Amino acid sequence: MIESKPEDRILEAALDVVKEKTISGTRMHLIAKQVDMAQSNLHYYFKTKDDLLLGLHNKVLQKCHELREEDKSNASDDLESQLDVFFNQKRQFILNYKKYDFAEVDFWVQTRTNPKIQKAFIESFQGWRNDIGKIIETYIPDLSDKNKEFIPAMMVSMLEGATMQYLIDENSFDLDKYFAFCKSGILKIIENI
User: Fold this and answer.
1) Engineering a disulfide at 135: which of 28, 78, 82, 129 sits with its beta carbon 3.0 to 4.6 angstroms away?
2) What is the C-alpha to C-alpha distance for residues 169 and 158, in angstroms, rounded to an integer?
3) Cα–Cα distance between 37 and 33 in angstroms, integer?
4) What burial class does residue 184 get, using C-beta atoms within 10 Å of its C-beta: 0-12 exposed, 13-18 middle, 19+ buried?
5) Distance (Å, rounded) from C-alpha 84 to C-alpha 76?
6) Model pTM?
7) Long-range own/partner contacts, residues 157-161 (CB < 8 A, 24 or more apart)
8) pLDDT value of residue 188
9) Average pLDDT taken over every residue of the chain
């Protein structure tokens, strides 16, 4: 068995604590206890709670990228399949990586009071819109700049809206049908522009 790095174990423990206590209720001593480490050792890897939270944000973001890259390698070279990569990643997060999605929701709240997290979140959302925008540019280069800006923003809203609703009430709607409907709607909007 390959032993994971202490930083990885700490961040995994932090995900568990955040899922249970939320970010505002998370304390360094709780994470240290979860990972069975002295709090002073925890501070060796993450000097402050902000450092740990930024590391956690990067871990969540990295997992998003890993899932998309994995799916991208199996996707066909067409607009619909490339958009599916994003819907599939969000579906995986919601169903199989809930603690990552719960942490992401908590990060949204932290952006109101923590400028470092706000900056990191602005960059990650911009990166998400840019990645979707590159697909739009590749397959529909003649769209207006306004539409190239708004379609990725709308798609991100649909994806994140699924998180908010589904994590609160899994019985509120069928996730697969919702994502199929969203993708269909985006394709129809593009077709009619």
Assistant:
1) 82
2) 16
3) 6
4) exposed
5) 10
6) 0.89
7) 158/182, 158/186, 159/86, 159/87, 159/90
8) 95
9) 93
